[in-house]
Amino acid sequence: MQHRSLVAITRRAASAALLLLALGASVPALAQGAAPGVDPLPSWNEGAAKQAILDFVKDTTDQSSPRFVPPAERIATFDQDGTLWVSHPIFSQVMYCLDRVPAVVENKPELKKVEPFKTVLSGNREAIAKLSMKDLEKILVATLTGMSVDDFTAEASAWITKAKHPKFDRLYTELVYQPMLEVLTYLRANGYKTYIVTGGGQDFVRVYSERVYGVPPEQVVGTAGATKFGYRPDGTPFLTKEPKLLLNDDKAGKPEGIHLMIGRRPNAAFGNSTGDREMLEYTMAGGGARLAMLVLHDDAQREFAYGPARGLPDTKVGTFPQTLDDEAKKAGWTVISMKNDWKRIFPFER
Q1: Which of 10, 124, 164, 286 is buried deepest, with most CB atoms within 10 A?
Q2: CA geometry: angle 160, 132, 320, nearest 5 deg
Q3: Alpha carbon distance 273, 82 (integer Å)
Q4: Domain assignment present for 330
Q5: To the nearest whole number, what is the mean pLDDT of the chain?
Q6: How high is the pLDDT of residue 21?
Q7: Residues 134 and 246 in one domain
Q8: Are 113 and 69 in a shared domain?
Q9: What is the residue-wise DSSP string for 217-244?
Q10: What is the CATH number of the domain that holds 261?
């Protein structure tokens, strides 16, 4: 039962690992609110997507507007993987778990010849991709639980400062989307509280969210496991990460997590896949001004292209099917074309 609940913490990432595995330094400081006459979204091409954001902010912050939203009620939620940073070919947290296996085996040498740890240690990506879900469950349990919260934070912090993406050979924290950083900054400059609402591990994202996105850890809502309070031999209190699920923050779990952790329905929500559908639906079901946006990865040259909506290649990571595209069109959600709407994708581009 404990193994089963832990796997839900990274279920979507786990599936991606099995199917696709066969295949740091800080980003530049976020800009402050734009001065009058200065484009607050300079990395966006002129078009419907950019205009939708500008119109939404204008309508909800102008006190003379019938769509005005009081400052205390201004909430915007953002998925992370595929919405704020690169998620292909495999979620970064899955890579973290796999990279942690050698350290786990070092502490428990008896696991060296035990599967699936033996296969992971071999480095054979094809063999790793063939591991069963039960095998991956063992890896997740071993790498995400059983340590103190402080130890996990230290380990994840060390990893995120040096781990690099296999395609771009850059730190994962450099592969954030500059246009979305601008949206985060623009909304905050206009009184919005910005939250990350992710299917990824809450503790994992909290390690770097403030440094990378300007979102403090208390404004990260993610898949969360239980912790247990205890005392060290010297009497110091601490928390241990337990293999028990508290919140599976994916699909329907996203609006559930928003209600549980935020307590207000968002005015704006940003996502990129079927895992975000319910969050956008929940956001748009409220009264007054609403904004729902989906990032479509259709730029194979600068990033990746996948769907399978609009004839793009199919994927198991961040799936954007035609049904989601059709729902967006019918419901009045805005689909952001990475290829057509973004002048540049990453902060390091010039």
Answers
A1: 10
A2: 65
A3: 8
A4: yes
A5: 91
A6: 47
A7: no
A8: no
A9: GGGEEEEEEEEEEEE-TTS-EEEEEEEE
A10: 3.40.50.1000
Residue 6 CA to residue 88 CA, distance in Å, equals: 23
| 201 has pLDDT over 50 | yes
Q: Which domain holds residue 183?
A: 48-89+169-341
The pLDDT, as a whole number, for residue 27 is 36
- Residue 37 or residue 309, greater confidence: 309
Tokens 């595995």 correspond to what residue?
A: 21
Q: What value does the mean pLDDT take over residues 70-91?
A: 97
Domain boundary among 127, 160, 193: 160
* Together in a domain, 100 and 204: no
**Alpha-carbon gap, residue 301 to 298, rounded angstroms:** 9
In our burial notation (b when 16+ CB lie closer than 10 A, e otherwise), range 105-144 reads: beeeeebeeeebbebbeeeeeeebbebeeebbbbbbbbbb
Q: Tokens representing 330? A: 């019918």
Sort strands 268-271 and 75-78 into parallel, antiparallel or unpaired: parallel
- Identity of the amino acid at 38: V
85, 98: one domain: no
Pairing outcome for strands 75-78 and 334-337: unpaired
- Determine the 3-state secondary structure of 162 from DSSP: coil
SS3 82: coil
Number of domains in the chain: 2
Answer left, alpha or beta for residue 67, where phi above 0 means left and psi between -120 and 50 means alpha. Answer: alpha
Is residue 130 located within the same domain as residue 146? yes
- Distance (Å, rounded) from C-alpha 10 to C-alpha 306? 21
CA distance 269 to 196: 10
Q: Retrieve residue 275's tokens.
A: 């895992």
In a shared domain, residues 145 and 192? no
Shared-domain flag, residues 201 and 329:
yes
SS (H, E, C) 139-155: HHHHHHCCCEHHHHHHH
30 against 113, higher pLDDT: 113
